[in-house]
Amino acid sequence: PDPTENANRKKTAFQSVVNKLSYSKVTQNLFDTMADNGRLSRLTDVINLYLELMSAHRGEVICKVTTAKALDANTSKELNGILEGFLQKGQKLHLQTEVDPSLVGGMTVTIGDKFIDMSLKSKIKHYTGILKSASI
């Protein structure tokens, strides 16, 4: 059996889908190149990076906030206002929220390349480490 047969079948199937969606020639060439090099499994990564670049081009700053429980409308609005204070003129905040009950309380904030951990989980871990290392 020819080892390229399966790859060729995948590429042909993918091309038929792409052609039906009528993408630009540049986009079709990107997909063809990725298929030729066996990189279609990385397509989601490429798309996400492209979206991130376009977001930066539009002046959007992605901010990811993770809390122990869902934020109510008032708290979310207040947090949004505070975070907008960190932006430069012309930038727009693109807030993404997540819930992670393991944080116990507080929140973590990732804005641009900065990460702030204000969760109870990290404080408990920190103080537990101090207590364990102290000789009592």
TrEMBL record:
Top-level taxon of origin: Eukaryota
Coiled-coil intervals: none
PANTHER family: ATP SYNTHASE DELTA CHAIN
Protein name: Oligomycin sensitivity conferral protein
Gene Ontology cellular-component terms listed: membrane
Naturally occurring in which organism (per UniProt): Magallana gigas (Pacific oyster)
Chief subcellular location: membrane
Keywords tagged on the record: ATP synthesis, Hydrogen ion transport, Ion transport, Membrane, Transport
UniProt GO molecular function: proton-transporting ATP synthase activity, rotational mechanism
